[in-house]
Amino acid sequence: MLEVKDLHVSVEGSEILKGLNLTLKQGEVHAIMGPNGAGKSTLSAVISGKEGYEVTSGSITFEGRDVLEMEVEERAQAGLLLGFQYPVEIPGVKNIYLLKAALNAQRAARGEEEIPAPEFMKLVKEKLAAMKMDPSFLQRAVNEGFSGGEKKRNEILQMLVLQPRLAMLDEIDSGLDIDAMRVVADGINSLRDPERGVLIVTHYQRLLEHVEPDVVHVLVDGRIAKTGDKQLAYELESRGYEWVLEESTA
Ligand code: ADP
Ligand code: MG
Predict the structure, then answer these.
(1) Structure pTM?
(2) 71 CB less than 6 Å from ligand 1?
């Protein structure tokens, strides 16, 4: 579904990703772990098409299409969706309006009609309940004045409504208390689908106790230094990251 080959990316002249390889198959949940500054956010940003990153070599293919040739909107239409580490506030734009506009843009791209209002409300209310969010959140400006945990829930709410083909979550677990963590984890688990890929970027093994990844990658110094199963996450928790780098350069 997603294939990243020998990806080199620079930001403001310095090389951040240094030959990164990653393969994710449909239906799989992958976790990317790694120390601060390793390039985790850079990877998800480049896949989603955020500006300011220079791809100097390598390729990203999504369902057979060359992602680097696609505009940001095309990537979103193809179902690549990134949930942010620091969700943006959009003053003056109601949450419900954003959800509806995003969903309808997706439908329009597929040549479908706008979703009828009653059907939309039913869908949103169901997802809102799943994320244990009060309906009043729909009428508030996007993320404005939301607590850290509420913003993260809102990111997952967007995913539940938009149903991406590949859901990427960058440190969705940072700053969450235990209850919010459970809700977010349940939300991610409900995204699990044989047709969908999920890529979770996380520092902590804590989230992975609730969302079991099929594959765990360790990103160190701009490369995937090690790939394993969920056991690897536990090993990282107890042993840190140093040994992975030593092992991979030995
Ligand atoms: P991670 O998410 O693994 O903590 P990042 O991908 O955010 O790492 O960052 C990797 C490196 O790239 C860091 O050293 C960071 O300072 C640098 N970096 C990321 N974005 C920018 C930017 N916009 N300008 C300058 N340096 C950046
Ligand atoms: Mg990051």
Answers:
(1) 0.91
(2) no
